[in-house]
Write a structure and sequence with these properties.
The protein contains 3 helices and 6 strands, in the order ααββββαββ. With about 210 residues, it is of the alpha+beta class.
């Protein structure tokens, strides 16, 4: 009987010891989990923002494609276009881009539009006839009046012209403090529908002979 009591006491002591060890391991593991969680949480947050930013960038990319094609198509549907008409087109462009911001925190424009008429004569000489630039990250100097050799293959046909539109948007990611801003650009090319060339749109644009 005393031997049985001694064994029971030993078993009880062993059980208590195992319980203490299990508790210690559990506490150590809980601490490790907290450390791991504190490390991985910022990474998960950055990944979440990255997914959101990627989705927004893809949406803007599609809208810029729509804008570039719509602008080129509108200009190509006439034999001449005025400065006021170009301004109206730019206002339509802004509506298509919304709800994405058109200006940054310093009120600088984020959207830029470049419209150019490029013609090829009977001698197969291709020249920029006129160009209009408006907004951010665009300049008429990108398409200087005179010889031009950067049209995509197959567009510089003899005695013809092309309306080129370039649209740029300065995209600011949510994690821009890490990646910075970057520019999304789309271009489109349409042939005039009712004339060989679309006439010089006016004084607000740079044109040959001006």
């Amino acid at each position: 009987m005393p031997r049985s009591n001694a064994m029971s006491k030993q078993n009880k002591n062993l059980y208590c010891r195992l319980k203490e060890l299990t508790g210690a391991v559990h506490r150590d593991r809980s601490g490790a989990v907290l450390v791991e969680f504190s490390i991985i949480t910022p990474v998960l947050i950055l990944l979440l923002f990255g997914v959101v930013d990627f989705g927004q960038a893809m949406t803007i990319d599609r809208r810029l494609s729509t804008v570039a094609n719509s602008m080129a198509d509108l200009v190509a549907r006439t034999d001449s276009i005025t400065g006021d008409e170009l301004s109206d087109i730019r206002e339509i462009v802004k509506e298509i881009i919304k709800p994405f911001p058109l200006t940054d925190s310093q009120s600088n424009e984020k959207l830029g539009v470049l419209i150019t008429s490029i013609a090829t004569d009977s001698d197969d000489v291709t020249e920029v006839k006129w160009t209009c630039a408006s907004g951010a990250n665009v300049s008429g100097s990108e398409r200087p009046i005179g010889p031009y050799s950067s049209l995509p293959a197959g567009l510089a046909d003899t005695n013809s012209s092309i309306i080129e539109t370039v649209v740029r948007y300065e995209f600011t990611p949510t994690i821009g403090f890490l990646l910075g801003n970057y520019t999304i650009e789309k271009a489109a090319y349409f042939r005039p529908r009712v004339a060989i060339e679309v006439d010089n749109p006016g004084s607000e644009c740079v044109a040959s002979g001006s």
